[in-house]
Amino acid sequence: MNGLNPSVSLPERGKPITVLARRELSLLFNSPATYVVCVVFLLISGWLFISPLFQYGESTLDTFLKPMPLIFTFLIPALTMRSFAEEFRAGTIEYLATMPIRDYEVVLAKYIASLGLLGVLLTFTLVYPAILFIVGRPDTGQIAGGYLALLGLGSLYSAIGLWASSLTRNQVVAFIVAFFVCFVFFLMGRIAEFLPNLFAAFFRGWAVETHFDALARGVMDSRDLLYWASGTVFFLASCLTVVHSRRWR
Amino acid sequence: MIEVANLTKRYGSTLALDHVTFSIQPGEVVGLLGPNGAGKTTMLKMLTGYLPPTEGTARVANLSVLSESLQVRERIGYLPETNPLYEELAVYESLEWTAKLRGLPESRYRPAIRDVIRVCGLESVVGRDIAHLSKGFRQRVGLAQAILHDPEILILDEPTSGLDPNQQSEVRQLIQTLKQRKTVLLSTHILSEAQSSCDRVLIIHKGKIVADGSPASLGQQMTGGRRLIVELKAPSDLALQALRQLSGLRQAALQPGHAANPVIALDTDASIDLREAVFDLAVRYHWPILQMTQEAATLEDVFRQLTAASSTPMAAAVGAGTTATGETSI
Fold first, then answer.
1. Chain-chain contact of B87 with A90 (C-beta, under 8 angstroms)
2. Chain B: residue nearest A245 by CA?
3. Alpha carbons A3 and B181: distance in angstroms, whole number
4. Positive or negative, the Cα torsion across B93, B95, B96, B102?
5. Burial of A205 from C-beta contacts in 10 A (0-12 / 13-18 / 19+)
6. Which of A30, A95, A102, A249 should be substituted to probe chain B, the one whose Cβ sees the most B Cβ atoms within 10 Å?
7. What percentage of chain A's residues is helix, strand, coil (to nearest 5)?
8. Which of A22, B137, B164, B221 is most solvent-facing, going by the fewest CB within 10 Å?
9. Given a cut of 60, is residue B329 above it in pLDDT?
């Protein structure tokens, strides 16, 4: 056969993440479910943006951005539920685990693919600010902040979705767990309104809406960025721990 | 090439592997035999780095499967028992993806893919989705993925499981081709497969290695000698009396169920060959020899003897399934 040297040097290790992420993305784009979810999201977001524009003549992204923390609690779990659950169900996790790749590379690749899909989806929504620029003079900083907030939210929810998917071989269970956890993060802001000040501050600190709204207004605060980053890292690390746990079972 | 020392695996209170020790030399084709649940798959999963041992050490290509798992995985080709494949990929895409994931550059993986497609006989299905392939072709795709990077060591978990006899034969031929250049460790509970494909057999039972040797030597070890079956055209009592005079004979017994001519089993030590003496005796008495067969205990006999103690239904099923192919006549 070929006289290949089986040993591929370790410094080349950055590559598997790219290979895996591309494959995950192509898998997502080949799934009809992805298109259904994306079309539904674009229809809803389009309606949210367009209706006040014509009704009140307002040129703002607020009506599109405001409901996103709630809409993403459905959207992101639907996009990530397959990632690990399907690998466990089909047994392909054994294939991945016996290839010369590290567990964290698999987790990161799936996370990147999930964010990549969200990025593509959000690219379609750029038509809304484009319309705003045609009909008025919107605040560029606010638009940039809004999209940064969407990415932060998507990043955290994707990490939660991947973690939930790593817990089970059933995609529906993965969706429900991810939805529940995302919804708890969403709900914290609402619950805070009914609590005494001391507790309300604590709950607001954990709520996604607090950090989303601040960033979406165009206020760039490092605490908000830290919130998204640390939440993402925490759930990705939890996902890695679950995937890795077979090694100490 | 593969060194295993006191390897133990517990799943909670269940002891799947119990202080197993063995080593495999480069170029050997070793069959891991055992009834279902004996610990074969657990053993292979630990050697590939998929599962960690509870105790003991395992080294593959002189690398620890625990601390140097990534390097071990680079050097082995593994076909899991369930042969998990990405069904939505076409055969070529699946091989290409495996090559990329292993970090092979395009200039090297393209000829490698061509080679494995030829070696595994996948030419006719190369553009077809894996979801639409027969079990036999899927097994070949799994095998092609395992050998794509030309590994030093091949670990195959029940490579012919679920295949029809023709497909089994094809996979065995493929293993024969590969064994010229690789160290192969394969698990199976098809005894004829181990007998025909393997230089050496490890019989595993209840998580322990209960026999280790070539299929032929295991048979001799179990019986401690040889058996010669002789059918003569002669009076039974006279023939038995005459044969009992042969030197080196341990025991001579008339085989039941042969009314016309006596069929006599002659048991001797492994070092003694009575065939010439029997021939001389038959010539002297003018008794035509109708049949003379030297028997060794078959791998099936050995397997049943070593594994029948606990899982009787299993051992019986294995025996029943392989009767036609398990016998060895010399």
1. yes
2. B51
3. 11
4. positive
5. middle
6. A95
7. 80, 0, 20
8. B164
9. no
Whole-angstrom Cα distance, residue A79 to residue A37? 8
Quote the pLDDT of residue B222: 60
What is the 8-class DSSP label of residue B199?
S
SS3 at position B185: strand
Determine the Cα–Cα distance for residues A182 and B255; give it in Å rounded to an integer. Answer: 78
Q: Is the overall model pTM greater than 0.90, yes or no?
A: no
Enter the DSSP assignment of B182. S
**What is the residue-averaged pLDDT of chain A?**
86
Please name the residue of chain B whose CA is at the shortest distance from the CA of residue A13.
B103
Binning pLDDT at 50, 70 and 90, where does residue B327 land?
very low
Beta bridge partners of B11: B14
Contact A103, A243 (CB under 8 A): yes
Residue B309 tokens, joined: 């103690």
Mean residue pLDDT of chain B comes to 82
Count Cβ neighbours within 10 Å for each residue of A45-57 and write b for 16 or more, e otherwise: beebbeeebeeee
What is the CB neighbour count within 10 angstroms for residue A24? Answer: 21
